[in-house]
Amino acid sequence: MDNTQEVILKKVCKIYDNLSSIENLNPSNDVNDLFTQLVTTCTTSCNEFDVTKLPQEIKEKIAKLITLCGKAEGLLESHYSTIIGTHEKPLNHIKTFPYYPNYLKLTHLEFTMLTKHITQKPSKLAFIGSGPLPLTSIMLATYYLTQTCFHNYDIDPLANSKAYDLISSHQDLSKRMFFHTNNIFYVKNVLKDYNVVFLAALVGMDKKEKTKVINHLAKYMADGAILVVRSAYGARAFLYPIVDPCCDLKGFEVLSIFHPIDEVINSVIVARKCSVNQEVYLKSKCCEVEGFINPLNHGNVIEELSIDEKA
Questions:
Q1: Chain centroid to CA 120: how far?
Q2: Considering only CA atoms, which of 280, 256, 259 is closest in space to residue 269?
Q3: How far is CA 3 from CA 7, 39, 49, in A?
Q4: Which of 34, 66, 173, 197 could make a disulfide contact with 167, Cβ separation 3.0–4.6 Å?
Q5: pLDDT at residue 262, rounded to an integer
Q6: Residue 267 belongs to a domain with what CATH number?
Q7: 41-67: pLDDT as tens digits
Q8: Are 268 and 109 in contact (CB under 8 A)?
Q9: In which residue ranges of the chain is pLDDT below 50?
Q10: Would you report the helix, strand and coil content of the chain in percent, each value rounded to 5?
Q11: What is the pLDDT of residue 284?
């Protein structure tokens, strides 16, 4: 580990110690400042940082930090969803969410990657782990997939209720966006109905659970359907769990991978559900995919887009 990486690790560990001492991770000046420091540290550092090679005790601390990040992100989204939902036309105020620009770029990136591997836009798709502020689904439905029905799955009924409140008054989205309160492991045969499935970064907060979710999707998704997975790379892996495209996507053919170098945090992996015969063939090719980076330029994109509410 070089000096730069040591400095990054010390900063991250100090932030973790400060965060773990806070009982309430609801948005506040202290919590917001610490997470701003953490995000800045992790997104302005070199992508060569490999957290998988750190000592075991540091890995355990990272796992706890990722859990804290996931909890805080859920509370942040719930907080802003409640505020935005109080307006007569909630979607006109969605830009007040502080990470809105990041989601705008990430969604544009994911759609651009997706369209390279589909022949036509899906009639309906599933988003697993949509949460109380389903920005990705809203942006995709508004800007890119304007005829697609979105089936959003979340285990938390309150999250789904808040999410529905955001789109219930919108003439178009209220007819195309649906919210299902389910543990994804109980969602089985219906998964074959979706041409595209998005898996949120916070579904499966550790390696074992993430792999279990992906294996479930591999079992029940239709052959040829597309899975879009959010992962992390480099120092960004202090914030979100890593999905290893070579080891963790059994049953899928990895089509493209993108690792961001700007303020966007999540890496994106696009994969296609294999048939049994394809799985046998791909086992010998798996390691050829590892490390591939899709050179997609997602710089200043759609910054001026706004959601046009209809009465």
A1: 23
A2: 256
A3: 6, 20, 12
A4: 173
A5: 84
A6: 3.40.50.150
A7: 998 766 678 888 889 999 999 999 999
A8: yes
A9: 280, 284, 286-306, 309-311
A10: 50, 15, 40
A11: 41
Q: How far apart are CA 203 and CA 301, in angstroms?
A: 27
For 273, the 3-state DSSP assignment is strand
Name the domain count of the chain: 1
Q: Are strands 177-181 and 149-154 parallel, antiparallel or unpaired?
A: parallel
Tokens standing for residue 6: 């040591």
Q: What is the DSSP letter of 274?
A: P
Range of the domain at 37: 1-311
Tokens of 182: 């389910």
CB 234 within 8 A of CB 48: yes
Of 224, 222, 203, 114, nearest to 214 (Cα)?
203
pLDDT in tens, 130-147: 999 999 999 999 999 999
> Is the CB of residue 269 less than 8 Å from the CB of residue 231?
yes
CA 293/CA 187 separation, integer angstroms: 32
Q: How far apart are CA 221 and CA 190, in angstroms?
A: 8
Name the one residue in this structure whose structure tokens are 């007040």. Answer: 96
How many helices (H) and strands (E) would you count in the chain? Answer: 10, 7
**DSSP string across 13-30:** HHHHHHHHT-S--SS-HH
